[in-house]
Amino acid sequence: MRSSHTSLFTASCLFHWALCHGVILNAQGNDGSPASVGFQGINPCQQDTTIIRDAEIKDNIVNECGRTQLNGNIDVGENTEQALAANAVTQVQAGGEVQLTIHQVNADGAGPYVCDLDENSNSAMISPKNITMLNNVPGDNGLSLTKTQQFNVTIKMPDDLQCTGASTGNVCTVRCRNNAAAGPFGGCFAVQQVDSTPKVNTPANIETKQPLDKINEQMKQNQVNFEIASKANNTP
């Protein structure tokens, strides 16, 4: 089974060579629970890798999970709810381990990768928690000579994990990426905590407000982005 999936993955990504770098194929938490896949993933192959740049997040061009060249900004809330509906969110517990399968397609999909998580699932990583990497994808600054190879990476959830997001009130978003200059490349996936009491999320108690200075800052950035987009649209 593994060899046939690998062959299909390799053939498809060779066809889309310019779009593939490093992809999160699978995330497996507690034994017996379903596996998660990277947001915007196409099983068994993602034809367009995720780019997660801090500058684009800061400028509100994308959210915490970045974008793909084919589909643009990744909607964390939408992807999370779709995964929950499909029973495709792996289960975790505080201090537990998650096994990742990362497929490195070309040189700048290498490691090392770093992972963090948003306990509120969709709050723009305002207070992200770092995740312990128990092993990693080989590489230096996101580069190596390896191509079309899968790596198994184990990550450890924080001991004080408290997932409170999504409609179920117990989902976190995990984000993993390398530091390749052309990227960073990586992806996000949802995990569902099963050793805690779920939060009851309603429109009234979900914090979405921003302070006035942040709103004004974003309005200024929107004006800059509009000018850039307008000039690009008017360029022959």
Automatic annotation (TrEMBL):
Q: Which UniProt keywords apply?
A: Signal
Pfam families membership: Egh16-like
- According to the UniProt entry, where is the signal peptide? 1-20
Q: Mind telling me which InterPro entries this protein's record contains? A: Egh16-like
Q: In the UniProt record, does the keyword RNA-binding occur?
A: no
- Kindly indicate whether the keyword Signal belongs to this entry: yes
Kindly provide the name given to this protein in its UniProt entry: GEgh 16 protein
